[in-house]
Automatic annotation (TrEMBL):
PANTHER family: CARBOHYDRATE DEACETYLASE, YDJC DEACETYLASE FAMILY MEMBER. It comes from Lutimonas vermicola. Coiled coil: none annotated. This is ChbG/HpnK family deacetylase. Pfam families: YdjC. InterPro entries: Glyco_hydro/deAcase_b/a-brl (IPR011330), YdjC-like (IPR006879). Transmembrane segments: none annotated. Keywords: Carbohydrate metabolism, Hydrolase, Magnesium, Metal-binding. It comes from the Bacteria.
């Protein structure tokens, strides 16, 4: 039996992204969406989630690319107010990782930031069914320790963890060596989930073509699914000049509209139905091996 959970990341980031995610849910394959609590269009994202209870919404923990809810300059913030005039987290993963590797990130500040984001989410929703993060930075040692503690504290049952499997055609592309560290870190994180109530899906796919999942690439992903439950990460939306300008490192080459087409394609819907692939939410999955 093969099952998929199709998650749209970045709900709340921008009106153009919110609109695409809503369309991908109503007319496509998206069953879940990861909501940012510190983005320019978070309030609209919250409203979309409340107006569409069939869309399962979890938290997209913001480590970079958003306002700092602590609202004070610190080791986790940028000197540049790239979103309006607020105090912002570090602008991209390059900047964050450089500071992280130098030991210049204060983990206490980061934990306080995470607590504020989680608290804001819980002020609007009863539960947090799943968690992932911007640029998958929650996998980094030290940060993962904080995330694991917070998942236990706030009863977050699912967390996104990549897993590279061999032989697997999905990983054989030009991004393989870039993604290898994520897979290694993901395997370590999976091991640390043993003897906890926190789960992850058997497989996580979509990173191989992040920001450029076309109809053909999604069909390729579906045709190479393994037995078990796989989370497919997508970024459906409409092009945003604002995001490209403000966050060029992250979004300069993103093809949101291609991913929206993939999520709403009749071809992909037909492939799923004809191959009897189950389309699930996180809350539909009872047990998952880590």
């Amino acid at each position: 039996m093969k099952s998929i959970i199709v998650t749209a990341d970045d709900l709340g980031l921008d009106p153009s992204i919110n609109r695409g995610i809503l369309e991908a849910y109503k007319n496509g394959l998206v069953t879940c969406s990861a909501l940012l609590m510190n983005a320019p269009s978070t309030d609209e994202g919250i409203a979309i989630a409340k107006d569409n209870p069939g869309l399962e919404v979890g938290i997209h923990l913001s480590i970079v690319e958003g306002f700092s809810l602590r609202n004070i300059h610190s080791t986790i913030t940028s000197k540049t107010a790239y979103f309006e005039n607020g105090i912002c987290l570090r602008r991209d993963w390059h900047d964050f990782l450089k500071c992280y590797l130098k030991g210049n990130i204060n983990f206490k500040e980061l934990e306080e930031e995470f607590e504020l984001q989680i608290g804001k989410f819980k002020s609007h929703f009863n539960t947090i069914p799943f968690l992932n993060s911007t640029q998958h930075l929650h996998l980094l040692p030290g940060i993962w320790k904080i995330v694991l503690k917070l998942c236990k504290r706030h009863e977050i049952n699912y967390v996104r963890l990549p897993k590279m499997t061999f032989p697997d055609r999905l990983w054989l592309n030009k991004r393989m060596f870039y993604l290898l560290p994520f897979s290694i870190l993901g395997s370590y994180c999976r091991f640390s989930l043993r003897n906890t109530q926190i789960q992850t899906t058997d497989f996580m796919v979509g990173m191989q073509f992040s920001g450029s999942v076309t109809v053909d690439r999604l069909k390729f992903i579906l045709s190479n699914l393994r037995t078990g439950t796989s989370e497919i990460m997508l970024h459906p939306g409409y092009h945003s000049d604002y995001l490209v300008k403000q966050l060029p490192t992250s979004y300069n080459n993103f093809l949101w509209e291609d991913e929206l087409k993939a999520a709403t394609s009749l071809d992909t819907k037909f492939y799923i139905e004809s191959n009897k692939i189950n389309l699930l939410k996180f809350s539909d999955v009872n047990t998952t091996e880590v």
